[in-house]
Design goal:
Two copies of one chain form a homodimer. Helix content of chain A is 55%, strand content 12%. By secondary structure, the first copy, chain A, is α+β, with helices and mostly antiparallel strands.
């Protein structure tokens, strides 16, 4: 019953008009990313998602994954064929490094493909998504040998990758990891321990699975400073690349979950499995963070992706469902009732979704471009700024896009009324699938702490001050421009509030860390609201320049105005809350809740 | 893994300290509702819910209901035995009229029992909940004969009742109903049509099911003015009360839903079923509204109930789960890490829940007391005011308590991190079950329209002005009281904003109805935030009077202060949004979403 069509036009707008990728053709990989190629990639990706991935979305939800008694795991019907086709069509290679067989196209573009895949089938999209993260970590932290051994097959998707962090006693606090690594004479390690919530820990899609596992080498320091990273393949890989012995690891069980049933969430038992150290001893967290940052942006886009597919279906429903007459008099007098899109409160939910989705997409892709620039720009200053921007924006994108993405998917369900609660219409699956995005890869609370505790203060606050200066620059340049007035005014207000909140944090969060913790969520929300205001201001500017006969640009400006007038007012509430500090929050004794 | 314990202490506070039910002992039914009896009822109800209903909650979710090929429906294992015991213990009779065999205790008290049952097992609680609604409608609208024939058995719960409104082409807009009623010579009608989403339409709990069905008598006026209400029993009832022929009605299918799997959501086919008119021809909506108003309050309490059970489990988890150290230094140095309740952002989610739940409970029971006063007060003026207050507050309670209840259940899930997403911990079920409360008995958007379009303006706004005057009175009386200062200030601010929003609506909503529709949701949220501020102010006042050695009262005051400082700031955002009007919301052509 539900449908999915990739939002190609909006993605084209972002790449061609908003980010103007064509202006970066001096960068490696970008010279090939012409507007025509981008259009072709988006079209083809959309087609694959619609024809192959989306039809499996409800099947995956219904069937889930099944663990057989031998510990093997069967993914839902059709997933294997779809995965084969996904690999054969070269989709995982789009942004991978040419030396690993990849096309080396912009990371920002690969973000759009991830969004499309995830909208069509989030549970499916997680398999290549996590492989990509594990690949990046190995490429960043692994030895030349490891890169050569695993890189090409992981880049292509022939082999999958996983991230093994969590254990029963530790999720957020990885310093509590107990999994042991015992050095062997041949330079390898024997890994023993249990990991839980391992997405794709076992599956029947790929011939090998390359596990990245955090473990503690015997005698390592306690806590987070004694954690090392290991590569632990399901099948040992020979020097010629052939698959050898089955490693001593197995899937001990699957979690029953609220959603993403098509993705196997595994308990992984390592029983003296052979692994090899990645990078230096006791520095495992460093490499893991490479992977986590990219994964976090990816999770933000997952939140967006579920909002997008939910939105599309709520638009259809609002146009099709006939109930009651418009408050302004019959709009479709020939029908027994008007389509519910005539009702303001239905409009409110549609416009809230649209304004969020388009702003969030711009924010995510804009940030992803810094990921490209950080690696590829010839300009040291640009590389540094891009790196710092990525670091600053990552927790905001992860948490803000998933918090709001979930809210918006719920609004889309709400538009469906009772139908939204039934399985038949698909909405409830989008909501259930989306729910995990607020949790995994670091809960949204952890993102907020990362933002206020680490990212804000990094390098004396250089990144956030640079972001403020950039917004001020926009305000200064466009003040007095009548057409941009609501955006300039909105941005002035948003930026002033964010600066106010930042100052409060600097004054109060340093003296009492609990103040920083108490303010962290509201600060992140305020940051996200401000970032989207800035995105809308930039998009409005370019839309004013481009608009002609194409109503697309008028709609952009209108949607941006809606955002500024009807979403941004939430900023003030977050500012007021964050300024209340920790006292009342911490006052009740723990045993009196 | 999850648990439920009825919040008896908080309910005692509401009945004894806050509402002081003992002061109403002049009213019928209240003379018996002594504090001792109330305590006993709450204790016993909590025990029944914990021992009998709660253990079936996850079983019901897992198994769901099954429709057999003969159209009969099997409820989950244990539901029948639990229902029998529920009836044998006389729970449905608590607030029923003595002439129907009931105890005639206050409606407000029955609200607490409903909350307890619904927390423990919402899907189960819906069966007697809907029976109660159908019973009230029959008592209000039925003939003496009908009341005598169905009343006692429905009051006791031996027979169940259902509400049949929705059809495939109409949910909100009941004017589109097609189900036909053809008059017969014997004064009965033959009912033919299909109803959908009928909760408890078929089940194996009771020997008879009394369906209340909206249908159109042949030749009736079009639209809502041609709808009549019929009582259509599953088994025809003889004059001696015996069960006769099976009626021509059957369950054609069950919906697959996001949650409340233990409740049978039926497609009901009426194939010339024998029914009898309830009340007058074409006036069916009037009686149905009696039932709907009560049902709407009940749904608000369902939203609260899921927030409550989710909260309890999130408190346990926050105290048990060890992750990371407090930002203020180790709090449990003897353990490998601190319990996560030391982290401010976890506290934020706990305090948000606590402040909402206690405020919302007070609001719901306070409103329910007006339900009692409306029927039972000897004072005409009190009866009228109570009726008007009930009418005004009902949409707010339905929508605000379910919107926020769902949000809070989600916060409780969030505190659980990854565990919250797994079935094992129960949280995801509470969230899924809760989701329907925002939809059924009129979507929350419809509640908002009911509030701004009907309830506000009723009797020239008398109810809302009386509510303003009541708040002003509190402010005037307690201004200058240092201990109440945050509450007086909070209430001043909330009330001023609500008045501002009300004025805006009066000035702008009458000239352009779309402005009223566009503002409706934000107005309702603003109303709810203000009402809870008033509840907290009243609770703080009584807690200041009562406090002594019992820290319960100190905690109340603290929680209220938290509400005023950290929740109420949202009011300003809603006011700002509602004042933006309909223009931007309605501007985008429907085919350009």
């Amino acid at each position: 019953m539900p449908r999915y069509d990739a939002p190609v036009r909006d993605m084209q707008f972002i790449f061609h008009d908003f980010l103007s990728l064509q202006n970066y053709s001096n960068l490696p990989g970008f010279e090939e990313a012409t507007p025509d190629l981008i259009d072709a990639v988006l079209e083809e990706s959309g087609k694959f998602a619609k024809d192959v991935l989306f039809p499996l979305n409800s099947i995956g939800d219904e069937q889930g994954c099944v663990r057989n008694s031998d510990g093997s795991v069967k993914t839902p019907d059709g997933f294997k064929e779809a995965y084969n086709s996904f690999v054969e069509n070269g989709w995982p290679l789009v942004n991978k490094a040419p030396e690993m067989g990849g096309q080396g196209l912009p990371y920002a573009l690969s973000m759009a493909i991830s969004e499309i895949n995830s909208s069509a089938n989030m549970a499916f999209g997680m398999y290549p998504g996590l492989t990509s993260g594990a690949y990046e970590a190995l490429m960043a932290g692994g030895s030349d040998e490891q890169r050569a051994m695993y890189g090409p097959k992981m880049a292509s998707g022939e082999w999958a990758g996983t991230m093994n962090l969590t254990e029963p006693q530790c999720g957020t606090d990885l310093g509590l990891i107990k999994t042991k690594a015992v050095p062997q004479d041949d330079g390898s390690y024997k890994i023993t321990g249990q990991k839980i919530w391992i997405s794709g820990g076992e599956q029947d899609l790929t011939e090998n699975i390359i596990h990245l596992v955090l473990a503690r080498i015997e005698g390592a320091p306690e806590g987070i400073k004694g954690i090392s990273l290991f590569v632990v393949p399901k099948f040992i890989v020979g020097e010629d690349g052939s698959l050898g012995d089955r490693n001593e690891l197995s899937c001990g069980g699957l979690e029953e979950k609220m959603g993403i049933h098509g993705n196997a969430t595994c308990v992984m038992n390592y029983d003296g499995a052979t692994g090899w150290l990645v990078g230096e001893e006791n520095k495992g967290m460093r490499t893991m963070f490479v992977m986590m940052n990219e994964a976090r942006l990816g999770v933000g886009v997952q939140g967006l992706s579920q909002a997008e597919i939910a939105y599309q279906n709520s638009v259809d429903f609002a146009n099709d469902r006939l109930q009651s007459r418009s408050l302004a008099g019959p709009q479709a007098p020939e029908k027994p009732a008007d389509p519910i899109i005539v009702h303001p409160d239905v409009r409110r939910m549609l416009m809230d979704q649209k304004a969020f989705i388009e702003g969030a997409r711009a924010f995510a892709y804009w940030t992803a471009l810094f990921g490209d620039l950080h690696h590829k720009s010839p300009d040291e200053e640009v590389r540094q700024k891009s790196d710092e921007y990525m670091a600053l924006m990552t927790p905001v994108i992860k948490a803000f896009l998933t918090d709001r993405g979930y809210k918006m998917a719920n609004e889309a369900l709400q538009i469906h009324g009772g139908s939204g609660f039934t399985k038949e219409w698909g909405l409830e699956q989008f909501v259930r699938d989306c729910r995990i995005t607020l949790i995994y890869e670091g809960t949204n609370g952890i993102q907020a702490l990362d933002l206020v505790g680490r990212k804000l203060a990094a390098n004396g606050g250089r990144a956030v001050f640079s972001f403020f200066a950039e917004m001020d620059d926009f305000i200064g340049t466009h003040e007095g421009n009548a057409e941009l007035e609501p955006f300039v005014e909105g941005l002035k207000s948003a930026k002033a509030q964010l600066q106010d909140g930042t100052n409060w944090l600097m004054q109060n969060g340093m003296t009492d860390f609990n103040n920083a913790g108490a303010a962290s969520n509201d600060y992140l929300q305020l940051f996200g609201l401000t970032a989207l205001t800035y995105m809308w201001a930039l998009m409005a500017k370019v839309s004013l320049e481009k608009r002609g006969d194409d109503p697309f640009y008028d709609d952009k400006i209108l949607t941006g105005k809606y955002y500024v007038s009807r979403v941004l007012p939430e900023a003030a509430a977050h500012l007021a809350k964050l300024k209340t500090g920790a006292e009342l929050m911490m006052a009740l004794p723990a045993d009196r809740f």
